[in-house]
Amino acid sequence: MIKSKAVIFWSFCCLFVLVMFACSTDNGLDPDDARKKPLELSMVTFWPASHPQVADGHLTWIREVEERTGGQVKINLHPGESLLGAREIFNGVAAGVADIGSTCPSYTPGMFPLTEVFELPGYQNINSVAASMTAHEGYKKIREQLGIDEFSEVKILMFWATGPGNIMSKFPVRSLEDVQRLEIRAVGGSTAPVRVLGAVPHAMPMSESYLALDQGLVNSILGPNDILEGFRLAEVVNSLTRTPFLYNMVFVKVMNKKSWDALPAEVQAVFEELNDEFALTYGKLFADASRQGLEFAKEQHGLEVIELSPEEEQRWLAHLTPIVDNWVKEKEAQNLPASEAVAIVRELDEKYSVEYGEY
302-324 burial, b if ≥16 CB within 10 A, otherwise e? Predict the structure, then answer.
């Protein structure tokens, strides 16, 4: 009797195991795969959730990563400096506080001296698409041809750029004399040009600009048109003067090295594929957002748009000519291959301005 009960018990156990195995492999799923959880990565950015760079850019990129890796990766985005401040993002990612971050190299002045080459005045800088491709491919060429990598602490995913920007002010700026009244938010390569023109530059992240303008800490800002809507600056400025020759701001998306090394090779390949795709996608996004931001500011806030006359523009340009030469001398005194870097960027700027000039 005891033996019969034991046989029945073990028969039931075997049947239970078989049923569970059958259930776990139903629909062709490998039981090991069923137990796998996606690798979760954190991503930080200073752009607010409402900005097109987040709503249409970063979230689209994240969705593509997750889909193309077959769900092996899940990325949790923290926008609007909710995890790291704009000035903290690069170092925070390098230290592992976040896995991925998008930021502006110019928010940490002096940390990336050769990267300033992309923001010098005098390039064609025809639109954000050309500027983005110039920055993305320019970084690769500078690293490969000149042996300089200012971002060796992290894994570089991609570069992109705003392209041309304009002076947005509380009062009309129609002449060089008006510029001399400006207390202006300017960062990176745009700082020297506005100083040469007679304005007083104040460096600060874009996320701090609304409050600075609202409280009168500055009376103007140099930036791309998308900020009029994306950062609500149309509420605190009254006029815009077109100055495409003054401005280009470069952005970078970086990843913690340990986080990168932990990814399977096939997942790394997906990231690399998307990096090249989205340098172009982000450039187009900024071009579209620039047009939309300007129309929004004109229609909703009555923004005045000022075009400099050809004669007045030449007055401005005459003051800007020596800036590149001075920059090259300064960086070469630091043993950096500045003239070679300028030559690389000029070549790419010309190439992509022709290729994407009609966008």
Answer: ebeebebeeeebeebeeebeebb
Q: How far is 337 from 114, CA to CA, in rounded Å? A: 8
Tally Cβ neighbours within 10 Å of residue 55. Answer: 17
pLDDT at residue number 211? 97
Burial bucket for residue 23 (CB in 10 Å: 0-12, 13-18, 19+): exposed
* pLDDT, position 29: 30
Mapping DSSP onto H, E and C, the string for 47-105 reads CCCCCHHHHHHHHHHHHHHHHHCCCCEEEEEECCCCCCCHHHHHHHHHHCCCCEEEECH
Domains within the chain, CATH numbers bracketed: 36-108+150-161+250-288 (3.40.190.170), 166-248+294-355 (3.40.190.170)
Decide: 110 and 330 in contact? Cβ < 8 Å: no
Residues of the chain predicted below pLDDT 70: 1-35
pLDDT of residue 109: 87
pLDDT of residue 331: 97
Please name the residues in contact with 296: beta carbons below 8 A apart, sequence gap of 6 or more: 228, 229, 234
What does the pLDDT read at residue 244?
Answer: 86
38 backbone dihedrals φ, ψ, rounded to 5°? -65, 150
Compute, in degrees rounded to 10, the torsion defined by CA atoms 133, 161, 320, 138: -40
Angle, in degrees to the nearest 10, between helices 265-301 and 59-68:
160
Q: How far apart are CA 127 and CA 129, in angstroms?
A: 6
The whole model's pTM is what? 0.82
Looking at residue 321, what is its pLDDT? 84
